[in-house]
Amino acid sequence: MRRVFKKNCIFPLDKNARIMYTSHMDKHTLARKEIKLLTEIRNWFMQKGYSPSIRDLQKSLAYKSPRSITVLLERLKGKGLIERNEAGDLRVNELDKWDKNSSKTIDIPLLGVVACGVPMLAEENILERIPIDTNIARPPYKYFLLRAKGTSMNKKDIEEGDLLLVRVQSTANNGDIVVALVNDEATVKEYRKVGNIVVLKPHSTDPDNKRIILTENLVIQGIVVLVIPKV
């Protein structure tokens, strides 16, 4: 069996692979099922803002029985990687225990539609989930991804097909690139506010892309924090 060595980590490259790591306090061996469960709990909390139940985890990880989830949770609890608060909610401690030199990711949903009247992160809006480094998608904020359409922001290096990492928030400052809802569709523009008037300003080589003038009641879904070029 071929192995790849990196510092204190050992990654056996077979289907029964287990990951070993060391911290300043403990040494643990995590099975892939345990790592997958830890990741799901963290992703659930980051995306939905609350702790998943055992039934939630059973469904999302496609286990036949909740007993399997309970057993894995007990193992992780025994290793000090999770705990429950007084309300019974799960808390993941593994970010403090894993090797600080290893990359950690969170699954960010890529949305196909952003529209009024539908919860933005509803499952029916999600095309797929893409792992993003937590140094980029920093907790405790929520994020989503959109694929850029058109040329209205190409002077800001946002091209057709690029992925936009958006931090969920309902307010913006002048100069922010926002995802806003106009006529029940998402638009990406620079935000400018003067008095009670908001201007959504394009930065385009195409003169057909016009600024949009709205009231301060504009619905903002988030701020673009990163443009990921189409590859």
Can you walk through the features of this model?
With 231 residues, this protein is α+β, with helices and mostly antiparallel strands. It has two domains: 3-97, Arc Repressor Mutant, subunit A, CATH 1.10.10; 105-228, Umud Fragment, subunit A. It has helices at 32-48, 54-60, 66-78, 94-97, and strands at 3-6, 9-12, 18-22, 27-31, 82-84, 90-92, 105-111, 126-133, 143-147, 163-168, 177-182, 185-194, 197-201, 212-215, 219-228. The protein has a seven-stranded antiparallel β-sheet, with no helix packed on it. β11 (177-182) and β12 (185-194) form a beta hairpin. The chain is elongated and about 60 Å long.
- Order the strands across the largest sheet as they lie in space: 9-10-15-11-12-13-14
**Helical segment tally?**
4
Counting structural domains, the number is 2
Rg, alpha carbons = 21 Å
Task: Return residue spans where pLDDT drops below 50 for at least 5 consecutive residues.
Answer: 1-27
Relevant CATH superfamily of the largest domain:
Umud Fragment, subunit A
Helix amount: 10-25%
Which fold name is given in CATH as the topology of the largest domain? Answer: Umud Fragment, subunit A
Shape: elongated
pLDDT averaged residue by residue: 78
Question: What structural class results from the helix and strand content?
Answer: alpha+beta
Main sheet summary: 7 strands, antiparallel
CATH architecture of the largest domain: Ribbon
Distance between the termini: 34 Å
Instruction: Quote the beta fraction.
Output: 35-45%
Text of the CATH class of the largest domain: Mainly Beta
SSE order in H/E notation? EEEEHHHEEHEEEEEEEEE
**DSSP strand tally:** 15
